[in-house]
UniProtKB/TrEMBL annotation:
It comes from the Bacteria. Keywords: Methyltransferase, S-adenosyl-L-methionine, Transferase. Residues 12-31 have a biased composition (Low complexity). It comes from Brachybacterium kimchii. GO terms for molecular function: methyltransferase activity. Residues 1-11 have a biased composition (Pro residues). InterPro entries: Methyltransf_12 (IPR013217), SAM-dependent_MTases_sf (IPR029063). This is Class I SAM-dependent methyltransferase.
Amino acid sequence: MPSLPLQPTPPSDSGAGAPSSGPADPTAASDRTPSIGPDENLWHAAVRRDPGHARRYAERWRRIAAEGTDILGEARLIDAMAPRRARILDAGCGTGRLAAHLLPAGHALVGVDLDPELIAVAREDHPQARWEVQNLAELDLREAGGDRATPSDAGERLVFDLEVSAGNVLAFLSAAERRPALERLAAHLAPEGRLVAGFGAGRGYAFEDFAADAEAAGLVLQQRFSSWDLRPASDDFLVAILARA
């Protein structure tokens, strides 16, 4: 598989490159050196140092929203990219702030975060969506009634038209979690689904390492931007649009 381009690629007539229908072998590029990053998930480390961290984080977002600050830029982009009544995964959803735009737009939203306290806030604020406590590196979402603990009796794996990972989530993962997380996200994409991931430079996850991990996970980078309103690519911030290889 060729290396992923780090500059934007022109869209096709339909607005994005069309992925093939079959998933790539997630071990295809396993000879690459894993990206350098933290030994511990940065969110776990923050909560370990300060048990009140999650509560204050949730309070901060509620306060920002109450002040009228625009916190829905990512959600507007995802809504614009999605077919109507799309299945959307918010990967690293935190308090579920993107639901405030995506649910009224008619989409079926599933949110996943590793912090139970943040998921509790999301369930309270947006009960219409499905919220799950899971680590992205072990992501396994099933249709209602499925049981992750008993694979033989598990429901069908959920697949999504759009997946979004905003808020620097991928940069919070430990080095050992990053590639498995991208593999799991790829596994949950519909054949023509897309993953949109954004994070800033200087957070311990070099953009070229992300590109290598995405390729190894069976993803193809279709376009790259520097903001959620699709400004040209830069070295400061990455918004990547990916599809299954």
